[in-house]
Amino acid sequence: MQTLKRSPGIRFVAGHAKFVSNNELTIEERDTGRKENYTFDKAIIATGAHSFIPPFKGNGVQDVLTSEVLFSQDRLPEALLIIGGGPIGIELAEMLAKLGTKCTVVELLDSILYGVVETEFASIISNQLASLGVDIHTSSKVQEINKLDGHFDVTFMDVNGSEHKANFENVLVATGKVPNIESLNLDLTSIQFDRKGIAVNEYLETSVKGIYATGDAIIGPKFAHTATYEAHIASANIAGGDTQTVDFSKNSWVLFSEPEIAVAGLTESQAVQEGYDIVTGVYDYKIDAAAQVMNAPFGYLKYVVNKKTSRIIGVHICLNNASSLVGEASLIIANRLTLKDVAQAIYPHPTLTEAFGILAQQMLSTN
After folding, report:
1. pTM of the model as a whole
2. What whole-number distance in Å separates Cα of residue 267 and Cα of residue 286?
3. Which positions are annotated as active-site residues?
4. What structural domains does the chain harbor?
5. Tens digit of pLDDT for each residue in 278-294?
């Protein structure tokens, strides 16, 4: 922020902005309350997102925790209910369980991490959580959250339709994010948006020419590194015309669990849904020389491959060092490499990265 304030040619105003029209907005300054109108030729909306809290019944809903406020608490709860088994909920469940909190996860869908990681990898994380004493209830729905004497009484329905009531010191809601756009007065503009965010084209331009949007405010992947990628593209297009396009099929991300899970490109189910005829291959790190040297021979590398072209369209890593390897996966996806491209690379031995070449060679020899 200090760098921004010192940058020549930039005026920084801390305040609340609202659109007046397609080329004008009002900013109410935070410190003084003074309002000033600004007209513009170009604009970027990058207002981020906040945690979504479903409309549960009960008097305790207003006091639940979210990921934004969890770490401002004075102490760890002894017993915590986490509503939502997606990446945020699972990372926090594992971390807090290791710190001594008794965690219970309630997930509406059929499994934790549903649709975002490979099914077999989700099972590995589920088993890891169970070993830490985390109770997981999938296909279950929270119905009511009440607060009494400083604790939370929660009612939820399980997969069999049975009602459960349990008491927790606190409740953490991790059911996703919603964009911070509701107070921007977008209805006074021609910008198209819905509850998922602002609609943008491949240049990250909204339905109003000259207004761009990035990050968690738009419809698309919601990751900090993806927002940075988008910011570079939007900035370049504003400065030099629409010359750069976004490609979310190249997105990558990491679940910081134990083991870590890293993803680049499409999952197997996503590839099928998009109409690809695919083949998959898996490398088991128990046979890997580097993993054995590290005394950690557990993990998997998986490719999702377009059968017609042999192009690798998804790379999935389940390994304690997955976050260190996902850069390789990102380059494979971003450069649209085929199995042959990867197989012909020369990887140093013994390293964890040579699995990329070995798996490509194995798949070429069997398909």
Report:
1. 0.91
2. 23
3. 349
4. 13-50+180-246 (3.50.50.60), 61-175 (3.50.50.60), 252-366 (3.30.390.30)
5. 999 999 999 999 999 99
